[in-house]
Write a structure and sequence with these properties.
This protein is an alpha+beta fold. Helix content is 39%, strand content 21%. Helix 1 runs antiparallel to helix 5 and helix 5 runs parallel beside helix 9. The longest helix is centred in the N-terminal third of the chain and has 20 residues. The chain starts with 14 loop residues before the first helix and ends with a helix. The relative contact order is 0.11. It binds adenosine-5'-triphosphate and magnesium ion. Adenosine-5'-triphosphate binds next to strand 6, strand 10, strand 11 and helix 11.
């Protein structure tokens, strides 16, 4: 008999991968715990109407063609959740937790969208998402972005991911801009790709998101939102940028950044990477003050983001594979063989101060050049050079082998501090 196979667009996580995922999720959740966000666990199925009203208010691809829906025995239409935000808002609203209260929560688990499977795009995929209901100000937006930044730091991904930021303003300003954009594009309908042509009438802002060069060319002289933004949203955005600057969080302003969903307004952001090809967005979020009302609640300010675990896991794996295998962290070069004993003792003091780091002391003499070659071969990240001058001054020359930063003569204490900081 033929073997029964996995459903297209789904994935099994077998032990090795499941182990990596567990560590990944634990690190992320640790960061969320540190921000005192609380977990909620929500069902995988919801009434289709929940998504039709919230996600589908903008006639999105998700509701139009990506949802897994079924008719239940009593005739009601149910759908596997394509995202977590609407469910989260529904659950908190329904249980009275949004009544005059702020809530900061996170969720995790599988989401389902009937998309064309490809690298980084699946039909069952996993998100961890956070949502803050209540406070309307840029302080919450900044906290969310800070939290994302800390997640990338905890996962050693900071160097690979960049933050893109934009504002979509208040509904009226956005509507005026949307109309201007549609008016600008309508004469060029024939030159648009099929998806963009369809969006022209229903959700023209999404056209900005198109990756196609021909469509992007038509957008070059499109109306800019700068000419439409309302004063309050402009002030909100300026305050957010001020907070991020104060936190030292770098961002790139991307006026083309829009979210597919109509309930977003004001702040929108994405973290993207160059390493995953076309599926380079690892995390996306923003402010969606309109959502709770569309599902029957009172107007409630809200903001959040969701990260795609498959993409984050792929990125971590790509980096681990690209990194040279490393047997050693710190390679200690001995430039004065007569003083080998002094070096051995000095390195032992460093080892004692830095448990967890692997120090290898060069043996067998040879030129500095040949010793540094050995350091690189064993994948060391740093080298310490013990020469006559250094030993006389109770110092050591510190060399970062990866960054190529200028070398420095440091005391043992300074070396320890430096390594503690850089290895963190
Ligand atoms: P995309 O433009 O890649 O389709 P999206 O705008 O549909 O993304 P969101 O709904 O904002 O994505 O979901 C947040 C994150 O979830 C994305 O940034 C991505 O990392 C992940 N994600 C979304 N759809 C998929 C999918 N089909 N497979 C894997 N991950 C996904
Ligand atoms: Mg999508």
């Amino acid at each position: 008999m033929a073997v029964v196979r996995l459903v297209r667009g789904m994935r099994d996580l077998l032990p090795e991968e499941a182990r990596r995922w567990r560590a990944l999720e634990e690190r992320i959740v640790q960061v969320l715990d540190g921000f005192a966000y609380e977990e909620v666990r929500l069902p995988l199925q919801e009434m289709t109407e929940l998504f039709a009203r919230s996600v589908g208010a903008a006639a999105t691809d998700i509701v139009e063609k990506e949802m897994y829906s079924l008719i239940d025995r009593d005739g009601s239409s149910l759908s596997l959740r394509p995202e977590g935000t609407a469910s989260c808002a529904r659950a908190l609203l329904e249980s009275g937790l949004l009544r005059n209260q702020a809530q900061r929560v996170f969720y995790r688990g599988p989401m389902f969208r009937h998309e064309r499977p490809q690298k980084g795009r699946f039909r069952q995929f996993h998100q961890i998402g956070v949502e803050a209901f209540g406070p309307p100000g840029p302080d919450v937006d900044a906290e969310l972005i800070q939290m994302g930044t800390e997640i990338w730091r905890a996962l050693d991904l900071s160097g690979e991911i960049q933050l893109e930021l934009n504002t979509l303003g208040a509904p009226a300003a956005r509507a005026a801009w949307r109309d201007a954009l549609a008016t600008h594009l309508r004469p060029h309908r024939a030159a648009l790709d099929a998806d963009s042509a369809r969006r022209l009438d229903r959700n023209p802002l999404r056209i900005l998101d198109s990756k196609l060069p021909a469509t992007q060319a038509l957008l070059a002289d499109a109306p800019s939102f700068d000419d439409y933004i309302d004063d309050e949203s402009a002030a909100h955005f300026a305050a957010l940028k001020g907070l991020l600057d104060g936190l030292g969080i770098a961002y790139v302003l991307n006026p083309r950044l829009v979210r597919g969903l109509d309930y977003y307004g004001r702040t929108v952001f994405e973290w993207t990477t160059q390493r995953l090809g076309a599926q380079g967005t690892v995390c996306a979020g923003g402010r969606y003050d309109g959502l709770v009302e569309t599902i029957g609640g009172k107007p409630t300010a809200a903001a959040g983001f969701a990260l795609g675990l498959e993409r984050v896991a792929m990125l971590r794996l790509a980096l681990a594979e690209a990194a040279p295998a490393s047997a050693v962290d710190v390679y200690c070069c001995v430039l004065e063989p007569r003083r080998q004993g002094v070096v051995l003792a000095a390195v032992q003091r460093l080892r004692n101060g830095l448990p967890g780091l692997r120090f290898r002391v060069h043996a067998g003499g040879g030129s500095l050049k040949s010793q540094l070659k050995r350091a690189n071969q064993c994948g060391a990240r740093w080298a310490l050079l013990f020469g006559e001058d250094e030993l006389r001054d109770n110092r050591v020359t510190f060399k970062d082998l990866r960054s190529g930063a200028p070398q420095q003569a440091l005391t043992a204490q300074a070396v320890i501090e430096r390594l503690v900081g850089e290895a963190a």
